[in-house]
Amino acid sequence: MADEIEIQFDTRSDGAAVSSAILPNDDRDRMSSGDVFEIDESVEVVWGGASIRKSLEHPDTVHLVVRVAEPLAYAVAGQWLYEKLKGRDVDLRIGGERVEVDEEEIQSTLDDYKDS
Questions:
Q1: β partners of residue 44
Q2: What is the CATH number of the domain that holds 36?
Q3: Among 75, 73, 100, 76, residue whose Cα is nearest residue 86
Q4: End-to-end Cα distance, the chain
Q5: Distance (Å, whole) CA 67 – CA 12
Q6: Residue 76, CB half-sphere, CA atoms under 13 Å: how many?
Q7: CA distance 90 to 21
Q8: Residue range of the domain that includes 16
Q9: How many domains does the chain have?
């Protein structure tokens, strides 16, 4: 059974562009909430959609669930998430906890799920 970890991030920059960076190239135009894509044989991402707002006061929010099937795959999930978000102006939450877009902090937070 895979562990499921909720991921959300807010951005005041172009939320559609950030969403596109997350999605696989061949599925960007076809993904619907609940669709699943694989980033590794032991890691899947469930696309939860994006709330794109047309206001500078309210950020756009992207929702994902990462499914990790085995302990070693947490490193793959952490690296993937970091690579997708590094250098972007986002507020990241993993399991509701605010996390800096820092490779070690993301990995440490994900490892807490592995150990629980």
A1: 38, 67
A2: 3.30.70
A3: 100
A4: 14
A5: 27
A6: 16
A7: 13
A8: 3-114
A9: 1
pTM recorded for the entire structure? 0.86
* Tokens (6 digits) for 99: 């996390």
Q: What is the 3-state secondary structure (H, E, C) of the chain?
A: CCEEEEEEEEECCCHHHHHHHHCCHHHCCCCCCCCEEEEECCEEEEEEEEECCCCCCCCEEEEEEEEECCCCHHHHHHHHHHHHHCCCCEEEEECCEEECCCHHHHHHHHHHHHCC
**Tens-binned pLDDT, residue by residue, of the chain (116 aa):** 579 999 999 887 765 666 667 776 665 556 788 888 899 999 999 988 878 776 667 788 889 999 999 999 999 999 999 999 999 889 999 999 999 999 999 999 999 988 66
Q: Which two tokens stand for residue 70?
A: 């085995």
Amino acid in the structure at residue 112? D
